[in-house]
Amino acid sequence: xxxxxxxxxxxxxxxxxxxxxxxxxxxxxxxxxxxxxxxxxxxxxxxxxxxxxxxxxxxxxxxxxxxxxxxxxxxxxxxxxxxxxxxxxxxxxxxxxxxxxxxxxxxxxxxxxxxxxxxxxx
Length: 122
Prior knowledge:
Elements: E1 3-7, E2 10-13, E3 18-25, E4 33-39, E5 46-51, E6 58-60, E7 68-73, E8 78-83, E9 92-99, E10 111-112, E11 116-121
Parallel strand pairs: 2-11
Antiparallel strand pairs: 1-3, 3-8, 4-5, 4-9, 5-6, 7-8, 9-10, 9-11
């Protein structure tokens, strides 16, 4: 069992940066690949990024590649999403999730956090 809690969301101007954190409870955190997803009002949940259990492999959605960076610290049971050059279209609720192996489909993730709101003003 893994429980996840996101933090770090907020309001930022276009071109700005935010770093999201996702703190995990449970002794098996390092066994899971972790992912970030987002959901804007009226839209489906969208894959953003994923990182392997060791941190050695990452994968990004084309829409965020080169702007966002996913990382993890297994000693702190935490995964991060550094978001730079933010755009108004990045506005959404951001969720972290845990899965066995690198996954891009939200249905393949086993555990989810409650989400944190990111709003980018133009």
